[in-house]
Model the fold of this input.
Amino acid sequence: MAAAALRRAPVTGAVPARRLLGRLPGVALAILALTIVTGTGVLQVMQASEAASAGYDIGRLEQERDRLNAEIRLLEVEVANMAHSDRVYQQATDRLGMVSPTATVRVAVGVTAPEGVPVPSRFTPAVEVVGPLQRPWWAKLLESLPPVR
Done:
């Protein structure tokens, strides 16, 4: 009887194997649910972080686009100013040291001018040679009718 009492005496801090095996599916389900909830939260945080990062990148790229568009407009104004005839004349005389002509020189050439402007073939569109135009069917029909008097 003393041996039976020793067998039945609970050991403190120890869980009987049968109770542990009975609770194992519940513990596994709890761990699985906790893992799923944690994983879902982590994925949501990562997705929100990526969206915020993409938003910042889009904003930065839009600012760069606006800056470049403004620079293009300024360059277009500068080109327009440089192309003005007075500006070209000023640059030619001041910077390049050119002078206005004092006399007009005419040169006579003994060769006749060409029929058309000679342009390299790579700059002209290819011309498709088309045969004589066919008259429409109704013109043939009108010709076959007797003349009206």
About this structure: The chain has a mean pLDDT of 81. The chain is about 60% helix and 0% strand. The radius of gyration is 48 Å.
